[in-house]
Amino acid sequence: MAKPRVIVTRKWPAEVEAELKANYDVQLNERDIAMTADALQDALRTADALLPTVTDPITADVLSAEPLRAKFIGNFGVGYNNIDIDAAKARGITVTNTPDVLTDCTADLAMTLLLSAARSAGEGERHVRSRSWTGWRPTHMIGAKVTGQTLGLIGMGRIACAVAERAHFGFGMTILFSDPYPPPVEVTARLNAKECTTEKLLKDADFVSLHCPGGAETFHLIDTAELKLMKPGAILINSARGDVVNNEALISALRNGEIAAAGLDVFEGEPHINDGFLDLENVVLLPHLGSATHSTRIAMGKRVLQNLNAYLAGKTPRDKLV
Ligand code: DGY
């Protein structure tokens, strides 16, 4: 029997690509260049399954492919705002994502941003590298204390809870959260996390970390008005999706000292970075590294394949979204 035809949109870890080659008639992307909308649409016409990731917009237009052969889209990533889920559902396509396996690494990265932004790690590193450092001084590069401060989490899903775990037990931080779909009380009680409105959280937190999905529902959730609610010394962390924050409004708040600093792993329109960020010393900028560890990326790939295999076997994949 012919092996199922599978198209993978980006280069994956070698270990998982070996599994793909062994089990499917697979088209890999050795050159790792993002596919065009036409190529994605063609993939839906010619393959049984498409395995995209955050850099591939699977829009309603792409999903209008005729004739449609691929009835499975296995997203490599937990976030799926790159896929028009309603359009996929309307076309009878099963869509899956990769939750759980990247929770710890993404939470670690959020803490990296928080600590780096608080303690001027980016600015300090640039200072040393440019040979500008003249020696220790009591008033040099004074950052914000992290231990014992208040952390506000907007969105309290798996990754936010893992950040709260690190912040509360590791750094003695007080945890506030807002979420329209809060986790079970046992989870938040263990972290001594207090639910409140987003408005109160923005007013009370020393650090605000974003953990909500991107897309229409959370577009520019943090805009000029929300930034104005934050304390002048507060720090904003975004390891979720770039469009949750109005980047122009954030640049203005950072430039005018309305908030102290920011740590960003994601950007509106990435990989394009708004020039306004580049000359600001009080923002730490990372290239979407949340899940970027070897073991996590392998686990993400394997999770996509578990979902694909379940689908091909006529079972419901564990991470089925629609
Ligand atoms: C995720 O898994 O959502 C990461 O942000 C990469 O897409």
Outline of the structure:
The protein is of the alpha/beta class and 322 residues long.
Largest sheet: 7 strands, parallel
Number of domains: 2
Q: Determine and state the CATH class of the largest domain.
A: Alpha Beta
Under CATH, the topology of the largest domain is which?
A: Rossmann fold
The CATH architecture name of the largest domain reads 3-Layer(aba) Sandwich
Rounded to the nearest angstrom, the radius of gyration is 21 Å
The rounded distance between the terminal residues' Cα atoms is 28 Å
Question: Average pLDDT value?
Answer: 98
Helix content: 25-40%
Estimate the global geometry from the Cα principal axes: globular
Query: Order of strands in the sheet with the most strands?
Result: 8-7-6-9-10-11-12
Strand content: 5-15%
